[in-house]
């Protein structure tokens, strides 16, 4: 399958509102591409090692995809993108829409950022991120910024298994746990792993309604 190139700016500058429809098409293309990947494909993309130390039991399916929108310069760009998504939500293209400030971007990369989350009508969740073009962040190579703020998430079948798997992958020399939340207000447990060689990120997540998602 042909690689989907980043649309539309090679320097990761977030696009103007006129180009939001094309940016949305790019996001959906990435989601559809990810849906065709097996769990093994996803793991091999993040952890390109021959000897995986982990028992992969409890890994079920692709839970969601997160796509990087690009760097913004003015806060108004963040809210314009939210307005674009909200119009789709009002038009019933989404089941839900939420957004808020990023936790990971300022803690690890020294710049503010925002996340957006939508649930499509087929029940699949899509996350989107953008970061302020500021400080050391804007000097990082394009592919590094893309990888750090994009990820795929694998659904885990039990709450306790999330931390077990995180700790196991953390045994790989280049891999680091960069976030872990246990039983949030929705009953979800999740954590993020980063491979510090290729800067790719993987999320493992247990949802309290896991069995419903399997239907």
Task: Describe the protein in words.
With 215 residues, the chain is of the alpha+beta class. The chain has one domain (17-213): 2,3-Dihydroxybiphenyl 1,2-Dioxygenase, domain 1 (Roll). It has 7 helices and 8 strands, in the order ααβαβαββαβαβββα. The chain has helices at 20-35, 39-46, 75-90, 104-109, 142-148, 159-169, 210-213; strands spanning 59-72, 94-101, 113-120, 125-132, 151-156, 175-181, 189-195, 200-206. It has an 8-stranded mixed beta sheet with strand order 2-3-4-1-5-8-7-6, with helices on both faces. The two termini are 29 Å apart. 30% of the residues are buried. The model is unreliable at 211-215 (pLDDT under 50).
Secondary-structure topology with pairs:
Layout (H helix, E strand, L loop, with lengths): L19 H16 L3 H8 L12 E14 L2 H16 L3 E8 L2 H6 L3 E8 L4 E8 L9 H7 L2 E6 L2 H11 L5 E7 L7 E7 L4 E7 L3 H4 L2
Parallel strand pairs: 1-4, 5-8
Antiparallel strand pairs: 1-5, 2-3, 3-4, 6-7, 7-8
Protein traits:
215 residues, alpha+beta, 2,3-Dihydroxybiphenyl 1,2-Dioxygenase, domain 1, eight-stranded mixed sheet, 7 helices, 30% strand, disordered C terminus
N-to-C CA distance: 29 Å
Q: Would you tell me which CATH topology applies?
A: 2,3-Dihydroxybiphenyl 1,2-Dioxygenase, domain 1
Shape summary: globular
Count of domains = 1
CATH class: Alpha Beta
- CATH homologous superfamily heading: 2,3-Dihydroxybiphenyl 1,2-Dioxygenase, domain 1
Structural class: alpha+beta
Strand order of the largest sheet: 2-3-4-1-5-8-7-6
Strand content: 25-35%
Number of strands: 8
Instruction: Indicate the radius of gyration in whole angstroms.
Output: 17 Å
Please describe the biggest sheet, giving its number of strands, its sense, and whether it closes into a barrel. Answer: 8 strands, mixed
In the CATH hierarchy, the architecture is Roll
Helix content: 25-40%
What string, H for helix and E for strand, traces the elements in order? HHEHEHEEHEHEEEH
Annotation field: number of helices: 7
Whole-number mean pLDDT: 89
Task: List low-confidence stretches.
Answer: 211-215
